[in-house]
Each structure stands twice: as structure tokens, then as C-alpha cells.
Amino acid sequence: MSKKIILLSLIMLYALFAFSVQLSTYDNNHYDKKIELKNATKAEPKAVLFMVDITSPAATVINPLPFEPEVWVMNTASETAVNYWIRLSIKDALTNQLKYRDSLLVVDSLYSTDDTTLAFPSFAPVYLTQYYAVAEVWMDTTTGIDTMFFSTYDADAMVSVYYSPATEITSMTNYVPVADFSNNGTQSISFYAHCDIYENGQKAYSDSVLITDLASANTQGISFATFYAPHYPGASTVYFYTNMKHDVNRGNDTLSYDIKIIGPYWTNLDPATSTSTQWAGRCVDSEGKIYVVSGLNSSTLINLVQVYDTINGWSTLTSVPTMRFTPACAVIDSKLIVIDGGDMSFNAVHATEIYDLRTSTWGTGTLSPVAMIGAGGGVVNEKMYILGGAPNTAIFTGMYYAYEYDVRADTVGGTPWRTLSTYSPGHGTLLGSPFYGNPGETQYAYITGDYQGYHDFFQYEPAADTVGGTPWTTLTATPADVGGKDPSIVTKNGNVYVIGGDISGDWGGTYSAMAYQYDFENDEWDDIGFVLNQGVEGNVVGLIGDVLYAHGGTTGSSAINPAPFEKYRLLSGYGDVYAPYIVSTSPYNRQVNVSLDKIVKVAFSEPVDTFSWMDAIVNPDPGLLMMFFNETLDSLFIFHDDFKYNQTYYIDFDVFYDSLGYRSIVKSVPYTIGFATGPTGVNDKAGAYDFSLQSMNLIAKPNSNFDFMLYSPSKEKISIEIYSLMGNKIADLSLNEAKVGLNKVSWNLKNSNNEKVSSGIYFFKINNSKNSLNGKLIIAR
């Protein structure tokens, strides 16, 4: 035997002897623990499972004193366990930092169903700390584990109960959130109680209240700050919560509930100059006019073409040559297009008739490939997509249509019609949602409902109607209390609204007054909280600016007479597709806590340099008020020096502007904003404009007029005087009798001698019988 082999054998014998005497283990704290060996030569078992329990600390709340952690282990397998490891780790539960770790190698035999308790070296916990302990037992792999939380304090703040509103909440109702917060631990605690409210998916409200020295097992009720109107109609969620740092139980820190915000009922308008219809053709043009074409009146077809706009009210055009109900209608390139529809025998009318709005004459276009009655669809990229319908009552045999019509291609030798991919929902779509001729501001067309009362909802994407494409998408059906036979459908700024309808179909007799908005992100319908004054189907609904108008309809075999005619102003603040829309208002939370002069700011999506004049109604009466745009023309400021405390104000204002540059085609875009003032003596919140009009630099552009837009609550004299920097009056623009509402007063930047004033700083003083407004004006040439 060589010397090398002999030496190696001696080393192995020495190692075996050392192993049989003692075994050292090493942890992160460099602590060695010796354990006596028994039966060290037994074979290692192949499969052993353990039950594990951390027995010390025995309680979840302990004093901040050193103690020896203990772990109980039981062998639940049939084999004997030997040479197994136990590791105990303790972390700070909040920071996840490791505070303690020790590992033991146990060589004692642990027979099947036997158990043992092992003590670990001492651990010294720190006061006001929560810990997370993990005990692991393993041989080749981990075969047992136990965890526990323990802390050196017992602080548990909780939201114990909330109080939902006792009455129905409307969009115009102020609301005070109330909840009880409790101390569920054994120590007195101080913590913040919080409340957040989300409207339409956005945080609209937040408030916090400090609770101090709340004793164990005690409860304190908290009434949070008022959540001021106006509110967004639909579902809002109220969250009450705490986030105390040393809370031992996070599971009871939050409670929430949903509020259903009910919008106000629609405002009835005077229908006296209009004719009642059902199942009429309907569309809205880019000028903000609603067209009501033909349809039924008292079970008789009529050939009227009625037009409504917010400036001139109702008027009529030359009658449509062919009477029909539910034609597809749209206004494209100043042409009113009326396609197909139905006659009194429920057979399709095959007619494409086009009215030139410039020449006030009717003409004809290329006929559709198949005559269609009761079709739906919409306008996309200035083309009409006519979907569904039937030639007659054969709809019940399952005939479905889909066609594109391009009026710009309807010329000699042109090809205006294109057959599209069809869909097969398993039933018809006769007299579902009608063709909606809104300006083409979406890349999709939509259809829902059916004569038989189906509520399916489909989306058609023209751009995807290619070889191998998927143009049709089935979305979540409309709720049971809206839609069915002939509801109204409206699209605006990417939103889809469905309103009214015969919900069970086939003249079932249950007519909806509900309105829903489709939530594309979650594929669901949201009740937007406002209802018609009367449930109907077959009415005309059009959206002008952010105001919905509804006219006519039926609850039986003939049109309601006189026609229901009502409007509802959406609180989302969106304007017409061709006009800037409101993107934000200040102050935050719609609340101004008035202590000094205040200015309310309305920010628009883009500059509004096309505006020519405005009109406004303020409720309740605030007295003299001034409106002006900033220099970049993307924000409107509303100023008043005496807003009342604890008052909610609503300002409805219409913007009239020359939409095409002809000065003769003027359209009106309505907006609504709301804001509230807080109680006297309360400090201003972030977002409130806390400065006087005198601190604003109003800029007058050279070679132009400067417009004062003054709101007057009554017919009375308003004094408007311009002063130089030296205090000399240089111009008098006074109104002997202002009209009720908004008065536009223009200064041509000339003095009383009709001379152009020089560049520089000027001051104005505006007074009526009760109020005064003073400000600074800079003329920059």
C-alpha cells in the first residue's frame, strides 16, 4: 500500500471520529450550537414529512424582552427521521429586513408519529415592531413549514361601519360621507381616518381626519367634509380606510360601498312647432342640427323633414319625395341622404333620395343592392354603413344585410355601394337600434336590439373588413331594462349611449325611460343615472354639444301627440366634435372656500379663437359677474367679487361661433360647469384661485377690440369706465340698460376723443347697483 493511500485513509478515519463526537452548526450570527448524536450510523430515510409549529412565542403580542424561540416538530411519515435540519427566520414584517436566523442539524432519531420541541438561541425583539417568523424543517428538500406574525404592540385601527345615504343621491345633491372608526387592540392609538370617492373611474374627492388617543374597544364616528355637487351620474364608489403604520391587522382597514348618482330628469321643451313622429329617420349634422325625416304620425306615414337647432328652434325643409319609416339618414358634404325604409304594409321601400342643403332641392342616388326596412348602423369616415334590416317580415326567417354607401362615389360611372361581410346572430335585427347619422367621429358602427326584443350588441369595424379580417365583434348585450325594439343609439367622443326602447319587443308594452353608456374597457353597460320623463320607443335622440335632445316616439300603435320633447345636459363637459371640449375645471373637488376674490377656471382642449360671442345663465343669481379668456385662448375665467358662502353655482353657457368661416353659418355649443363655495372662515384648498381680478394681466391685442363679457342678473345700468395709469378717465363704455344674461361690451382701444390709446397699463371699473369689479388691462402693441 502506498504512503498516499495510507495517509488518505487516516484522514477519513479522523473525520468520521470527529463527526461521531460533535456537530457544529453555523448561522448568520456566527452562533454555534452543539447537539449530542445518537444512532449516527443509521441509514438516512428516503421520504419523511413533518408537522411544524412555532410554539414560542406563544402569543401574537409579547413584551419587548429577550426570549428563546421554540419549534415543535412531529414525524408524520412511516419512516424514521434522522439527520434533519430546522431553520428559524424572523423578519421585520413592515420592512422585510432579516432580524434573526438560526439553523440546527438534528441527528437524533425521530420515529414515526413521534414529536419533539427544540429551543433556539435567544432573540431580543424591539418595541413597536411587527415580526414575521418562518420555521422550516427539511432533509434533502423542505418537508415542513410554519409561519406566524407576532408584535411588541397591539394596535389595531379599523373601519367598523359606514353609513350609506338615507335618501337618493342626485347629481345636484351635496353629500357628507360618514363612518365609524374603532380601536380593536388593547392600546390607545392615534391615527388618520380617510375617505376617497371615485366618480366615473376618477378620484373626485379626498378628505382625512385625525383621531387622537382612541382608547381600547372605543369607537369614534367621523363626518367628513361635504362632497359638493354636481356629481357625475352613474355609479360612484366611496372608500373609508386607515393606514396606521403599526397596525397588526390590515384586513379590517378598509370598507367601501357604491352610490348610485341619479341625474336630474330631462327638461321638457315646447314641441308646439314640431310634428309628432315615431320610427322617423334621424341624423345630426356637423352644424349641430337634428334632422327628423318622414316616419309615422297617428299610424299614417308623413313626408315632413323637420330640423331643430338651438338658435332657431324647429323648422321644415322641402318634403321628402317618398314617405317611409326607419330610413337610414345622414348629412355628408351638405347633403341629406335618405335611403330605403318601410311602408305601411311592412314592405321595404327601395329609394335613395338626396337633398342638397345649399340649393334646397331633392335628387336621387343609386339604389341599394337590396331594399331594406328597419336597418341600423352609422357613419364612419363620411361613409354610411347600413347593417341589418330585411325586405319585409321575412326577417323572422333570418336574413341579414351589411352594405357601405359612399355618396362621394355616387356619380356617373361610379360605384357607391359595396357589399360587406355579414354576421349571423341567430335572429333578425329588424327595428333594432336605428341608423344613427352622427358626424363620423368613430371608427366603428354599432347595432343592437330587434323587433322581437333581443338585446344583442354588435360592433362593426370597416377597416377590418378585408380578406381574413374580423370586422364583427359581439359585445355585452344591453341590460334588460333598456333596448329591445327600436331604442335610440348615440355615439359621441368614443362613447356609445342606448336610450329607451320596447324592452320585450313585439309591442310588449314595457317601454324604457333608461339610458346606459357602454364601458369599452370592462365590456359592460353603466347606468348613467338619468331617465326620460316618459318611457318610449321609436323616438329621435340627437346630441348637440353636450346636450341630448329627445323628440317623439310611441308607446303603442301611433306616435305620442303632442310629441314628448326634452333635453338633458351631460355633466361630462364634452362639446361638439368640431368645437373644443372642457378638459378640466378649477377649483379641485368643485369647491371654492371663499375668503378672498375668486376666479373659476375652465380649461379647454384647444384654443378657442373661433369664438365670436357667448351667452350664459347663472343659477342662483350671483350678482354682477365677468368672464374672459386668457391670452392663449384655451381657458375661460369666471370672476365675481362676492360669491356667497355655502352655495352651489351652476353656469350654463353657450358658445356661438362661425363654424365654416362664412360669418353666416353660426352654430351654438352648450356647456355646463358647476362649483360650490365652502363655509366661511375655512382656508382655501389647493386648486382654488386665490387672487383678485386686479392681479390678472388682461392683454388687449393691437388693432383689435377688447371684449368685456359681463353677466347681469337684471335689466339695469352697468357703469364701465377706463382709467389711465395716472388715474384719468379716458373712456366710458357704460350700458344704460343691460340685458339679463351675458352682455358683450367691446372697447376699440380709443379714448373719448376717438384717438388710439398708447401701449401701457390701464385700469377699468365696472359697477351696477350692488356690485363692483375692478381690474388691470395691458395694451401691448
UniProtKB/TrEMBL annotation:
Residues 577-654 form the SbsA Ig-like domain. Gene3D superfamilies: 2.60.40.4070, Kelch-type beta propeller. Keywords: Kelch repeat, Repeat, Signal. SMART domains: Kelch. This is SbsA Ig-like domain-containing protein.
